[in-house]
Amino acid sequence: ALLSELASDDEYLKDVSIFVLSEMGDVAIPALTQCLAGETNGANAASIALSSIGVPALPTLLRCLSAENLQVRHLAIAALCTMQPSEHTRGIAGAIMQRMDDESYIVREMAVLSLGRMWEVAHTGLAVKDAYDILIALMLSTQDSEESVREYASNVIDSILENITSNGEGIALLEYADDCELQEIHISKYALDALLNCQYHETSIIRSLAVNAIGGMRGAFQTRQTVDALLEHLQDEQEDNLVRASCANALGRMGAIAQTSKTMKVLSACIHQPDISPLYIMAYQAYRRLGDMPEVLDVDEAYKLVFQTGCPVKVRNDKGVFIIFPPD
After folding, report:
1. Nearest 5°: phi and psi at 83?
2. What does pTM read for this prediction?
3. What does the pLDDT average to over 4-23?
4. Alpha-carbon gap, residue 210 to 199, rounded angstroms
5. Are the beta carbons of 272 and 296 closer than 8 angstroms?
6. Quick count: other Cβ atoms within 10 Å of Cβ 218?
7. Cβ contacts of 234 within 8 Å, gap of 6 or more
8. Among 11-15, 266-270, 295-299, which stretch is predicted with the lowest mean pLDDT?
9. Which pLDDT tens digit goes with each residue over 293-312?
10. CA–CA separation, 278 vs 293, rounded Å?
């Protein structure tokens, strides 16, 4: 009787049924799960009831993410994203991200909106890694083949940016991104195009995250086209210096593919701009990563570099060539 009331047009009866079934807990899960594939009105209510049951329903809902039935996948995401955050629900965001390349754009839409809701509800308690993974996944969805998914992703990113630019979370994200390799869940056929496009986002945090993510890609995604795109950004003196610093960092992480005379020349030029602290430090570290020790002409500049980077610096001037090492 309770299950039949889930499809009722009477909102009061429906709400009472959801509440009672939620209170029943484990016992109601199998029947509610079957309802997910049924009539739309009742299926939506079953999704709400499963979410209210919470952790006991988690394994079932995670399995439903790979169901053949489109409606079941869609409603499973809806149920998961509205669960109360707890130590048991930390893997939900990753599971939802797996559906961001679902064959159905309806499921991809729900995945995007769900990640946005999860951030809104729990972002202050999210680990930096989870926050980073969510934001990168949304950035990639801005290049989805479906216009509605692209629009949803852009809107969710704008909403997130209102938070992270006002409370300092952006700095923590950028620091985490400096050495983070792109996760397998983010690698898709349009990942590189999406990140290259995000280099031109109106917000500097997104541009920085994009170039750092490019530096964290591996294998076939690392090409001379990618190196050239980063170099173009790095040489743009009108660009935000934190973004330029991220470009230098990304080039340093790319290894052999970035070891070109042009790269070394551009990095060397950045090292000789000591007034732009984050840029010249990242450029120096990138230069070192790519297998060489940069030269400077001024001893004071060399000591400043040694102090700020903790690495040796070669000085070449009219007194000869010598190396200044950091103190023990």
Report:
1. -65, 145
2. 0.75
3. 67
4. 6
5. yes
6. 12
7. 244, 247, 248, 251, 266, 267, 270
8. 11-15
9. 667 667 777 777 777 766 67
10. 18
